[in-house]
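Morning, I've got a small favour to ask if you have a moment. You're getting the sequence in one-letter code plus the fold written as tokens. Thanks so much in advance, here it is:

===
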Amino acid sequence: MPNTGKSKVWVRPREELEQALKDQVTFMRSSCEAYDKGQHAEAVRLATSIFMMVHDGSQRSLLTQLSLRSGLRFSSYATPIPESNMLPDEPLAMMHVVAGATSSWVPILDEGPVPEKKLQFHDWWEKELIFRAPSGVSMNRRRLVFALRNQDGGGHFDPQLTDEAYVEFSRVPVWFENPEEMTVMTNQGGKPGYSPIRPFPHLPTMRQIAFELDRTLTLAGIV
């Protein structure tokens, strides 16, 4: 056969795309299970899997390649953020307080104050807010996934974080302008010290987004 100079291209059959989606869901569920056991760094892996499944940019997501994304309605448990609120809002995470134990931020899962909503993709991914600080900066699900994947360890670890809202969400203790007001503790030397409540709410929020996506795909009978 003469050499035509054309490279061979493999066009993936649908079965291969479907298996890739199942694999990413398996990865997502494994990371969720590990997160729930205390390995909170798994949130960055969740961001990577979710990005591959839902986001269209220079490359198309798995759900779009399978012609599924546009027909889905995505589960949301976020409470609306009132414009007049002067405190930080993180509607997909809540403070878990146990008497005699350290408080922590946890995902709301399906135990939040509002019933489940079903949203079109762009409303779920970009329009609905999942964090707003008193300074006015805010985040949607897309921005959180991008920050975790592109700069904070999911696919790359940048020397600087450039999203101001993400910095406030992930590095500045919420509820208090002064980090030293967050949690009073006694260190090993017997002197009072201060420690912010961890994990910061961006990680349980990422866990909650994975819960919502898993529920969306399960209810639709896709996985």
Remarks:
- Strands lie at 74-76, 93-96, 104-107, 117-119, 129-132, 138-140, 184-186, 192-194.
